[in-house]
Amino acid sequence: MSSIKGPGTIEPTISGNDLRIGIVHARWNSTIIHPLVTGAKERMLALGVKEDNITVQTVPGSFELPFAVTRLYAASQIQSSASTSGAAALDLLAGDAPEPSTETASTKPFDAIIAIGCLIKGETMHFEYICESVSTSLMKIQLDLGIPVIFGVLTCLSDAQALSRAGLSEGGHNHGLDWGEAAVEMGTKSRMWN
Ligand code: DLZ
User: Fold this and answer.
1) Which residue from 55, 90, 133, 168 could staple onto 163, CB 3.0 to 4.6 Å apart?
2) pTM of the model
């Protein structure tokens, strides 16, 4: 029996053709993180986002995600306004993305940013503190900045839960695909609703 869970079907008119998307991901639990990032990119490309318009940056762990999202967006705004610091912002935003081709790479501010991390519960209260602070901060940041911040943080009680949600175990599903789709939908709608 198929699951009743999931985001449903995206409107067929939604296209990422003109969107610029940032991904910032933690490196902690990299076995889980890599397929999630790949899944998010794969879905965005399938929805029309140009590879040159996807910027990927990394941080050590999930706790660093809110700060990184804030600064990444600010850097894209500086780059967009072509101020004197624009060149430095461009270097910063190059990240580990492929060399942008000047023909197609957009320099406008990001339409959406996906924050990807994987928290797995250990023996202490660390997990609870980081889950709470990161989720609350990412919500606040998207409302303060006025751009969609996609919550790509797995909060897992076991390794098995994380493997399943990265699509790495039997019957699992790669949630990165959903986050990529959410970024395209929300990036598009955020512009429409502006
Ligand atoms: C320290 C730590 C631990 C124990 N577990 C995780 C985890 O499961 N997932 C994750 O993304 N990060 C973890 N971290 C690192 C913290 O997020 C953060 O990078 C450090 O505390 C430095 O601020």
Assistant:
1) 168
2) 0.91
